[in-house]
Specification:
With about 200 residues, the protein is α+β, with helices and mostly antiparallel strands. It has helices at about 15-20, 25-40, 60-70, 100-105, 110, 150-160, 165-170, 190-195, and strands spanning about 75-80, 80, 90, 90-95, 115-120, 130-135, 135-140, 175-180.
């Protein structure tokens, strides 16, 4: 049956916007579509099972859009946060990029307080760096490679986008950058964007 412009999947994502992802075959193309989603121009994002991002992403959405347009296709992120209710977050952003861009992002660890963890294509690292604490318990960790190198991961990306993009991601670096200072909000994303703009990527 032919999809109409208003058809949505079980997660509320617009199927017409999914069709555009079928044509995205590079990290740069995926980054542009992600930027549009962060700007509210799209209602489909692979791997995000909702029509839009969550509430805490709103204040950093514009910065994330700029990062996506400069050679870093983001997968996950969160702002720094501290609450009286016992929640603490380290700001972080993760995503896919070329080897040259990964090198520039890794240099962030040598120039200041930010920490970058890089996973080369094909790596299956598993480690646990706490970045979110709720009620005294670790709720979110970084440190694991997320490139679609395993069959199930590859199939998921192929189904959500297309096989060519899944292959490109499997051959890319997966990079995680976080601010080690709990609750700090103003250091991470500006530094990441500055590094990307000087990495020779198109912005």
């Amino acid at each position: 049956m032919k999809e109409t412009t208003t058809d949505r999947d079980a997660h509320g994502r617009l199927l017409a916007d999914r069709g555009v992802w079928r044509q995205a075959t590079t990290i740069e193309a995926a980054g542009e579509l992600t930027a549009r989603w962060l700007e509210g121009q799209s209602h489909y994002q692979p791997g995000t099972f909702a029509a839009s991002f969550d509430e805490e992403t709103g204040p950093i959405a514009a910065e994330l859009a700029a990062i996506n347009r400069n050679g870093f296709f983001t997968k996950e992120s969160q702002p720094g946060l501290r609450t009286d209710a016992g929640t603490a977050q380290r700001g972080y952003v993760t995503g896919y990029c070329s080897a040259a861009t990964a090198s520039r992002l890794l240099e962030l660890s040598t120039r200041g307080e930010l920490v970058t963890v890089g996973h080369a294509p094909g790596e299956t690292n598993r480690s646990s760096i706490p970045v979110t604490i709720r009620d005294g318990e670790v709720a979110t960790v970084l440190g694991s490679s997320e490139s679609p190198v395993e069959a199930a991961q590859f199939q998921d990306w192929s189904d959500e986008t297309n096989e060519t993009l899944a292959l490109a991601l499997a051959d890319s670096w997966y990079v995680e950058i976080f601010d080690p200072v709990w609750g700090r909000k103003d250091q991470l994303l500006p530094a990441v964007l500055e590094a990307l703009k000087h990495s020779g990527t198109v912005g």
